[in-house]
Design goal:
Keywords: Amino-acid transport, Signal, Transport. The chain is an alpha/beta fold. It is about 45% helix and about 20% strand. It has 2 domains: about 180 residues, 3-Layer(aba) Sandwich (Rossmann fold), CATH 3.40.50.2300; about 170 residues, 3-Layer(aba) Sandwich (Rossmann fold), CATH 3.40.50.2300. The longest helix is centred in the first third of the chain and has 20 residues. It is globular, with a radius of gyration of 23 Å.
């Protein structure tokens, strides 16, 4: 990565050289051109930048760059010290959410490039891989969800509800919108990402199962490398589901999955964290999915009504890269990075420890995308380091995404945790 040498570094070098030569350093006060600039913030993004998983990682990286560029265009992000601090943003690959590659990327970012802030996937295995390293090096690490946190690792935070927690409210939203659903199939990828989604979807179903409103008729994992979905969907269809809840496939495979289901005659309801319509529309007529395909793990900025700020970000993205390059994770990432805005604005410095203490010290946050949000996580992680933001839910309608409703995830958990928490414990998704 490129090393940045600014006026502050130049000044320190000059003073060292002057001292070594026994010379008096000239006074720099009042010399505007030589005054030390505010400390720069070094932010690293770890995400897949190669292979199939780059369908996620490249848009995610772009979204982070847009967040940094917006602040830099104003002279830097405003901090509680009264100064604006420029953001140096760099991206690092984890290949395809591989834990060992995650740790390698973190080491490069922190030890070689001096990053003090990092952003990564919520995928539990990736989070656990860097937890000790991030904490020992005091690197505040944000994510678009809460896959792993612990009191032992305070530098890991969940910046928004995101995945997998948003599955809880998404399940409720879908079942309330479609009371005709009685038979539910859970179909998830056999990896850390999918296992978490399965656990939280199962937990979201728990209150409805307990009330006798639904029955889970299929609950199995499948190989994420699969490309022929007919055998899988054939087995699912034998259970006669009214709805299929699934994750997690990159955009191109989402389209293939829906196409196969359509060929097999499935006309029920779909639920997943998100659906990437530009890619899906290349294989499936979106009109055939009208009103029965739901998603929502955070803001999908292509939909204009939930957040003006997020939608302006979408417009910037499309202007630079084209509508066909958009995926929901881009908006999700941008909105999770925006959680830091309020913390920097009140922190006495840009040091990660100060920003972290400021952030956790806020009883609630008026989030620039989601509005009033509250810290949670004690029941699951043993510590309240997961910001639960109200989460928009979307449905395919009129050839695009329409806002179907908003779930207050904090309130959902308080109301339903008695039924949901034992299921998360059963799936070994808790740290307490």
């Amino acid at each position: 990565m490129t090393k940045h040498t600014g006026p502050a570094q130049t000044r320190r070098h000059f003073l060292r050289m002057a001292g070594a030569a026994g010379l008096a350093a000239p006074a720099l006060i009042g010399s505007r051109g030589l005054a030390a600039e505010p400390q720069r913030i070094k932010m690293g993004m770890v995400t897949p930048l190669e292979g199939e998983c780059a369908q996620w990682g490249i848009p995610i990286t772009r979204a982070g760059q847009i967040w940094a560029d917006e602040h830099n265009a104003e002279g830097g992000i405003l901090c509680g010290d009264g100064e604006r601090h420029m953001i140096d943003y760099s991206a690092y690959t984890n290949v395809c959410f591989y834990p060992n590659e995650e740790l390698t990327a973190f080491r490069n970012a922190v030890l070689q490039d001096g990053c003090k802030y990092m952003f990564q996937t919520y995928t539990p295995a990736s989070r656990k891989a860097i937890a000790r390293f991030a904490t020992q090096n005091e690197v505040l690490t944000n994510s678009y969800g809460g896959g792993f946190m612990s009191g032992d690792f305070p530098y890991l935070m969940g910046g928004i509800t995101g995945s997998p927690t948003a599955f809880l409210g998404l399940v409720s939203h879908v079942l309330e919108r479609h009371p005709e659903i009685k038979r539910v199939a859970l179909m998830f990828t056999d990896n850390s990402f999918g296992l978490a989604g399965r656990a939280y979807s199962h937990a979201g179903c728990a209150p409805y199962v307990a009330a006798g409103n639904i029955e889970i008729v299929y609950n199995e994992l499948f190989d994420p490398n699969m490309t022929d979905y007919f055998p899988l969907l054939g087995a699912v269809m034998q259970t006669r589901p009214d709805a299929i809840f699934y994750s997690d496939l990159p955009p191109g495979k989402q389209a293939i999955l829906l196409e196969a289901a359509q060929s097999l005659g499935f006309e029920g309801v779909w639920m997943s964290h998100s659906w990437d319509l530009p890619q899906i529309a290349q294989r499936v007529d979106l009109a055939a999915l009208e009103g029965r395909v739901y998603g929502g793990f955070g803001v999908d900025a292509m939909e204009p009504s939930f957040s003006d700020k997020a939608h302006r970000m979408y417009q910037s993205y499309v202007e630079k890269f084209g509508a066909g390059e958009w995926i929901g994770f881009a908006g999700l990432t941008y909105s999770a990075m925006a959680t830091l805005d309020a913390a920097f604005a009140q922190s006495p410095s840009v040091e990660p420890a100060d920003v972290m203490e400021t952030l956790y010290g806020m009883s609630d946050i008026d989030h620039p995308i989601y509005g009033k949000s509250a810290w949670s996580g004690q029941d699951i992680f043993g510590v309240n380091h997961h910001l639960l933001t109200p989460t928009p839910k979307y449905v395919i309608q009129d050839g695009g995404l329409a806002l179907s409703g908003v779930v207050n995830d904090h309130d959902w958990w308080e109301e339903h945790k008695a039924a949901a928490l034992p299921v998360l414990q059963q799936h070994q998704m808790t740290e307490v």
